[in-house]
Amino acid sequence: MKQCNKFGLFILASVPSLVMAHPGHHHHDANFWTGFIHPFTGLDHLMMALSFGVLMWSMSKIWKMIGAWGLLTALVAGFSLGAHGIIPNGVAEIGIVGSLFILAVSLWTKSNRIFPVAAVFLSVFHGSAHGAELAMNGNVGVQILGMITAMAMIYALGLGLGALMVKFVPQGKKIVGVLAALVAVIGLA
After folding, report:
1. Does residue 123 lie within any of the structural domains?
2. Which residues have a Cβ under 8 Å from the Cβ of 93 and sit 6 or more positions away?
3. What is the per-residue pLDDT across 135-168, written as a single tens digit (0 to 9) for each?
4. Number of domains composing the chain
């Protein structure tokens, strides 16, 4: 079993392009589907939204809503900043790694509201990476709508995963925290 884990870790570490904001994707049109599909094609986007949902599950209902709106607003703001070149892609990648580490720490510690707030602010970098990478020809507004729809769905899946973790997996939040940290470490490679 340990050999299998080491082999899997080796494979993931040797292919960091699978983890980070996948710059190899070249979309020729900006439309709803290119925006919608993009967050599902990178572990960084998936882990960020899933981890954030798991984290927010332990919060009150009002904080879940604030978290969702904050996340989506930060993504849109970041998308605009990245599309206009205000946040360079290299800086965005560092911010993405930072957001995953913040989420990992917050999933490992007792709930502290500063961590989700920090994660929301750092999600600007996820949006920035999207804005810098996705095509700017076609209907960019519809593309952003697709991205936001997908990220909201992944966040909702994270909330559901958080509910399952609390009910069935005693150390579930820590497991998700380890996965988020692993994705961040691989992203540094």
Report:
1. yes
2. 20, 21, 125, 129, 187
3. 566 677 888 899 889 988 998 998 898 888 878 8
4. 1
